[in-house]
Write a structure and sequence with these properties.
There is one protein chain. The chain contains six helices and 20 strands. By secondary structure, it is of the alpha+beta class. The chain folds into two domains: 16-139 and 281-300, 3-Layer(aba) Sandwich (Rossmann fold), CATH 3.40.50.10330; 142-277, Tumour Suppressor Smad4. A six-stranded parallel sheet has the order 3-2-1-4-5-6, with helices on both faces. A six-stranded antiparallel sheet has the order 9-8-19-16-11-12. The chain has a six-stranded antiparallel sheet with strand order 15-14-13-10-17-18, with no helix packed on it. The longest helix is centred in the first third of the chain and has 13 residues, at 28-40.
């Protein structure tokens, strides 16, 4: 039987580490200082994101903005929660230089679906990265465009999902969905979530979508409050492009496209939203102390009464 584990990916030598903490997270200040000192004692340079350096009082540290940092380091340490990691993933995808640097994501507070490493595990995880024994998961990302009057007006890369949804005061919207050159359906609903397997435990799960293991190479289409209950979530191959065209000619209908819940765009009549697998995955240092299913059991309280 084949094990559900990612084959080990090669780690390049770590000469410089970038550190990014969630904005306005005072609990991270002491941790940032500790990481800088720990790495310095091992001859590893650190580059601290500008706002993180201010938060931690690292006035003498080498600092760069969040957009510039990925091109200067061999590893990114992210301190915060899943939302912080989503923002970093977008910046890695948008980096002007082609980069496949791994991310070591440390959760502050409860365990995250994405930020699997806890504070007590931080230095053990760093040690495994430096000695080349750390496991790495590759998480497929999604690329989405909005086409208006034949022109691409926005191009975003996300880790979790793209949501095409109605605005707060809009009537139910109608979405024409195609997969490649195949028509799928006309969906009448509050919206549609197109998610990666990683994003299956985010908004898609809340809307009734399935949990999909992150090693599955697929896209998920999850309707939001469909008018017809026979419109069910479906899982499709990631080798095709999904096209979603909202019908917005009625003045009582309005819609938007949201990208990982961090940015959005109001749609107008004639707009088409496309979603496909992004060219580059996000590489995340794996928590060796627990499996993906252990994270699910803990977060979803499986087996508890």
């Amino acid at each position: 039987m084949t094990a559900l584990t990612e084959p080990s990916l090669e780690l390049r030598a770590i000469r410089a580490v970038g550190i990014i903490a969630k904005a306005r997270l005072p609990e991270a200040a002491e941790v940032v200082t500790g990481i800088v000192d720990w790495l310095s004692a091992r001859g590893v340079a650190t580059e601290v994101e500008t706002e993180t350096a201010q938060l931690a009082g690292q006035d003498g540290a080498s600092t760069f903005g969040r957009d510039a940092l990925p091109g200067r380091v061999d590893l990114l340490v992210v301190l915060g929660g899943d939302g912080t990691l989503l923002g970093v993933a977008r910046r890695l995808a948008d980096a002007s230089v082609s980069t496949d640097i791994p991310v070591l994501a440390v959760n502050f507070g409860s365990l995250g679906f994405l930020t699997e490493i806890t504070l007590p595990e931080l230095y053990r995880a760093l040690e495994s990265v430096l000695d080349g024994t750390a496991g790495i998961d590759e998480r497929h990302m999604l690329r989405s465009t909005v086409i208006r009057d034949g022109q691409n007006i926005t191009d975003r890369v996300v880790l979790n999902d793209i949501v095409i949804g109605k605005s707060a005061l809009s009537n139910i919207i109608e979405l024409t969905i195609s997969m490649g050159d195949q028509f799928v359906t006309c969906l009448r609903a509050d919206g549609l979530i197109v998610s990666s397997p990683t994003g299956s435990t985010a908004y898609s799960m809340a809307a009734g979508g399935p949990i999909v293991h992150p090693l599955v190479d697929a896209l998920l289409l999850t309707p939001i409050a469909p008018h017809t209950l026979t419109n069910r979530p479906i899982v499709i191959p990631s080798t095709t492009t999904v096209r979603v065209a909202p019908a917005l000619d009625d003045p009582h209908r309005s819609a938007y496209a949201s990208f990982d819940g961090q940015s959005g765009l109001e749609l107008v009549p004639g707009d088409v939203v496309t979603v496909e697998r992004a060219a580059r995955p996000l590489r995340i240092i794996r928590a060796e102390s627990r499996s993906y299913f252990a994270v699910l059991r803990e977060k979803l309280k499986w087996g508890e009464r």
